[in-house]
User: Fold these one by one.
Assistant:
Number 1:
Amino acid sequence: MHSEIFCHIDTRPGSNTARGALVGKRAAVQVCISVQGWPTEAGSAALRGFVAVEDATVVERLRDAGASLVGNTRSSELGFGLHGDGAGKAVAGGHVDLVLMTDTMGEARAAAASAGVFGFKPSYGQVSRFGLVGLVPSMDCCGILAKRFEDIGDVFTAIRGGDDRDPSLPDPAPPSSSPSAVPGRRPVSAGVVAQCLQGLSSIERAAFGAALSNLERAGIAVREIPFDKYELFPVVHNVIGSVEASSSCGKFDGVRYGHRAAGSRNWNEMYLRSRAESFGLPLKAYLFQGACFQFEQYAVFEKACRIRSELVGQSRRLHGEVDVLVSPARRAASDFGRANTVGQLYEAFSLTLPANVTGQPVLTLPGLVPCEGGDLGLQFLGAPFGDELLLGIAGRILQELEGTG
């Protein structure tokens, strides 16, 4: 079972003497996150044999907070999707208390929903990406999985903050909300995107409606709100994501590290053959698509960027009307691990990827949307850089649901 979950287990005796909020917590990191001296192949032949030369910033901060690193969980290729991923199983099976993993299309939250644990993607720009083997630089984020809700907040507090080695972090850091900003006596307001409901089956809509009724009985003010062009989220993510992925993967050329094809007659042939052998079919199709938009249909990429800006602006405006947006985290028929084409991946992750486009913090709570085919997970989206507020609201919702249960 361990071989299905972990690709590396640290057998050295623990020597972490740091004192912090994560003392006694067993942590794992996806193999897309660098740990000095550990294999960091990111589930791809392109990095076969690569061993990290230094720790990712999030790994340093986990250790500084007292966590004990157990090993690396398996990953889909470069974190693209969840095929073969072991993070959810590691937490749900009690092998570790928490896992850090990449979230490009919603993988952390989808893994959490499938495994029945808590999943959190912080705001883009809150957590350093240094040492993360990413694919889509403007959407990749380090997600957190944990069995206990309290651990999500403790891990986020430990790993967040500025880092001179990551230029994607804003400087100076934007002001963040405080848990004390959680509404006191007035109800928490939750918005349901009308266009999101249109994509659900009757069974899914009934299960989600029951979950919303439970929220209302717990004192949460729920209302439906329109989101113009919501249906364009997958298209925007697909176009921009594939272009960034194509550019990012240019460094996997077999020259300095990673896989190098044998028997090539010259450098050009070695480069072409190494690239051809380095990637699986889904990722290769994604990279070809990105190259097409990058070099042949650049106007499509520019239009996708303009629409992304509109979606981000509209999301910010909606958060002036409600505290959080709420939706299921998955469809009843979603089998994230079996999605093996670009089209299947975007269909499977259609409910989670909007937060990667907008950079919003988003939290998935387990067990609240039981449905045929398994729990759909309840997903709460907060305003950008409203991470503490989102976690505070979620804590209050859990307390009130427990009180009404």
Number 2:
Amino acid sequence: MNPPLSLTGNYQLVVLGQEGNPKIIEYTIRLIASVQRAFDNLGVNQKKFLISFTSNDKNTDIDRRMPTVAVFFGLVPSPVLSDTDSKRLKTLLDDGILIIPIVENITNFSAMVTPEVAELNGCSLADCGNDFERLAARILEGFGLLREKRRLFISYRRVESSGVATQLYEALDAAGFDVFLDTQGVIRPGEPFQEILWHRLADTDVAVVLDTPDFLASRWTEEELARANTSNIQLLQILWPGQTEGATAAFSMFHPLSNSDFVGSNTLGLSAQLKDFEVSTIVDAVEGLRARAFGARHAFLVREFAIEARSEGMQVLTTLERNLILAASNGSRTLVMPAIGIPDAERYEWLGRLYQRDLDDGSNYAQPPILLYDQTGIRSRWLQHLEWLNDNIACARSLSITDAKKWLSKIKGPSAT
């Protein structure tokens, strides 16, 4: 049996814009470097799997079977594309590929791009991050390497940092993140506050910790750190002046603040505010950490599942989309998707589409695909919902990592014993 197409191939980044423009050449170099760093943080070998296409690559054709994302830099009015870029743009539009238009000033958007691109939603250079971190994250989302739901959790001590917490909440929300902050009315009256808090923490990409002098004086903030460690969640730890890097969390990236980063002399309490540049820097740091955070949780699921599968005499192969092909000793195969966070209907749909694509390409699977997840912190009510889906939906099944060994023992081929 031939391997599924998804076991081989490359991610393709296409950069379009007026040929020879020196700014586009500079931005392209910086963008590709940022995407390469994001690949490295995610644990994907960018030298092996990432291909970039620019106007200079005239003799290289886009492989229309492979995951592709394009960026259009519109830096001059009524840009004229090279023949190569014009042909590539037509191919991308015909195939419905994600194209991200970037302009210097969004108010002049239509004048700075071609008529076909003007119909797409664009963004300004200022929204791409100081070193294209935000744009790189969107590209990875387009590749399917990062989920499009961009969830964050802010952990803080109200009495010390509620002002900065609200400020960061607003900035991150404006940058497209779905941010959990306990004062923003996300929990309805009568619902179990702590249970929902842990549920949301389990579904976060990065936890932003506001490490003020007495942050750990509260048992709740201390428990939030412990929960983050248990769930392999990466932390961006914002260190207040005088705070030092400590062993409070195993998966931390530290961002120290100085007194000069605040507006005025107040660094604590409701009135304390960070300067705009510092807030923007923190948003960029969150974007840069997302790929590393996603990669760490993905690696945990794959590692634990592979250990159990190999103990049952099975082989685990990794696809281009970072899904798994479970191969039993009798030759049967099963498609497994590691799901970071809480499984939902969109994950089922995405898995179903990948499964059907492989079937259309001639692959054979022994059973419906599996959505693999870590149940730590997920509400019991949601776990019951997943059990109901398993009993009533035939196209896919969810499987917690704690139940993997029992499930693998049931499906292994007779010759593996």
